[in-house]
Amino acid sequence: MSMLHCRGCGKEIHESAETCPSCGAPQKIAGSGGGKSKVVAALLALFLGALGVHRFYLGQWWGLFYLLLCWTGIPSLISIIEAIVFLLSNQQNWDNKYNDGVSSGESSGVAVALLLIVMFFGGVAVIGILAAVAIPSYQDYTARAQVTEGVALLSSYKTQLAEYHADNRDFTGLENSDLDGVNSGKYVDTVSIAMASGDTIVLVATFKQTGVNAGIQGKELRLATENGGVNWACGYGIQNPVLIGQSQLAPKYLPGACK
Fold it and tell me: Which pLDDT value is given to residue 186?
């Protein structure tokens, strides 16, 4: 026997009572309409939760926050959890909270069946959302780690080139064959001179087409100086018309010191 509280005097009465035996206050009849169904709320949370529709259904204005933040994916995760919480809620507690203590007359069997469905599809959705966020981040992390090899190879020429400029006062005429050092690696295909003129020299590390992250395949990383090797900059600190059109590495893959 399911009991609820009288809307007039607060005494416990049977859920089917049309009036309170104690005070005579009229009661809503179960299933008479106007009540909030936890099954409906759970379905709205599962399929339209990102927009806060389930909260609007329950008469809660703060569903607006779900709508404003829907692009982040956070409301989607929260609403899946809420759908499960709704279905696990005790029916009487639900009615007391959302239906003024009036029974909605819902079948517990329907709620249990829907709960199993929500948990299954909710789990799939959560895994999908986490994968959509984690995989790109991991790919970017991997690419940046591979780019550090290019930075290391280019940096190994700093001392050699600074000494060359100190002896000759000019980088003009330097060729790739003049670079004395390692000019390839696990991820780097070649190290070459893109420009050598006066006090300016630009080295370029070109990444391989295979065996590296897709974001940096065939891309180029620069190391340059404009004052004979006193100061160096990696990335694209030197913008020279001669270098326009080169296959530049996307800024997000550059080490922090190069940005």
Answer: 92
